[in-house]
UniProtKB/TrEMBL annotation:
<feature type="transmembrane region" description="Helical">
    <location>
        <begin position="135"/>
        <end position="163"/>
    </location>
</feature>
<feature type="transmembrane region" description="Helical">
    <location>
        <begin position="175"/>
        <end position="198"/>
    </location>
</feature>
<dbReference type="InterPro" id="IPR051311">
    <property type="entry name" value="DedA_domain"/>
</dbReference>
<feature type="domain" description="VTT">
    <location>
        <begin position="42"/>
        <end position="160"/>
    </location>
</feature>
<keyword id="KW-0472">Membrane</keyword>
<feature type="transmembrane region" description="Helical">
    <location>
        <begin position="27"/>
        <end position="46"/>
    </location>
</feature>
<keyword id="KW-0812">Transmembrane</keyword>
<feature type="transmembrane region" description="Helical">
    <location>
        <begin position="58"/>
        <end position="80"/>
    </location>
</feature>
<dbReference type="GO" id="GO:0005886">
    <property type="term" value="C:plasma membrane"/>
</dbReference>
<keyword id="KW-1133">Transmembrane helix</keyword>
<dbReference type="Pfam" id="PF09335">
    <property type="entry name" value="VTT_dom"/>
</dbReference>
<dbReference type="InterPro" id="IPR032816">
    <property type="entry name" value="VTT_dom"/>
</dbReference>
<protein>
    <recommendedName>
        <fullName>VTT domain-containing protein</fullName>
    </recommendedName>
</protein>
Length: 199
């Protein structure tokens, strides 16, 4: 747990540093893409400070994040479908959910759309569900539709709020930056705990 928290803390700061980079939009796309299959830090970490810096571009940044995340989810799906033994299994093992895969499959059998939508919308690790969707041959159409709905709702809602209340949010982040870093890491860890509890 301590190692994972330290890793999260380091990756969080590394991701955040890209917000002021000239190619921040490209990095936002990249982070959003890989987070859906392997990366630890959610793209919100990069998207929020970018919107604070340029609030009128909130829609553009939300669109980039959503599109890249859904495409990354499709990549995660094919990792599970074609590359389970060589890559997918290792990713799932890293998140400590190897023993829970049979029960994740039961969630899909009960309602695949609801399972993916919930993971796409909440701090529950979305990548676990994209990879397992491919492993268990869930309909790709279901994955895409649930991902667009869940990821779109999440990122556009966050982007709109930050775009509308950017300056107060900026002041809040600057005042409580260290606390927010810890909270973000704990929230992410909490997502893994929720998955284990649900399954």
């Amino acid at each position: 747990m301590k190692y994972r928290f330290t890793l999260l803390h380091s990756l969080y700061h590394w991701t955040l540093k890209w917000a002021a980079h000239p190619h921040a939009s490209r990095m936002l796309f990249f982070i959003s893409f890989i987070e859906s299959s392997v990366f630890l830090i959610p793209p919100d970490v990069l998207m929020i400070p970018m919107i604070i810096a340029e609030p009128k571009k909130w829609f553009r940044f939300a669109l980039i994040t959503t599109v890249a995340s859904v495409l990354g989810g499709i990549a995660g799906y094919y990792i599970g479908y074609w590359l389970w033994e060589t890559a997918g299994r290792a990713v799932i093992a890293f998140y400590g959910l190897s023993d829970a895969m049979a029960l994740v499959q039961m969630k899909y059998e009960a309602n695949a759309f609801a399972a993916i939508f919930t993971a796409a919308l909440t701090p529950i690790p979305y990548k676990v569900f994209t990879i397992s969707a491919g492993l268990f041959h869930i309909s790709l159409v279901t994955l895409i539709f649930a991902s667009i709905t869940g990821r779109g709702l999440r990122f556009f809602a966050v982007a709109w709020l930050v775009g509308k209340f950017g300056e107060p949010v900026k002041e809040f982040i600057e005042t409580y930056f260290d606390m927010l870093t810890i909270a973000a890491a704990m929230l992410l860890i909490g997502g893994f705990i929720v998955v284990r509890w649900l399954v």
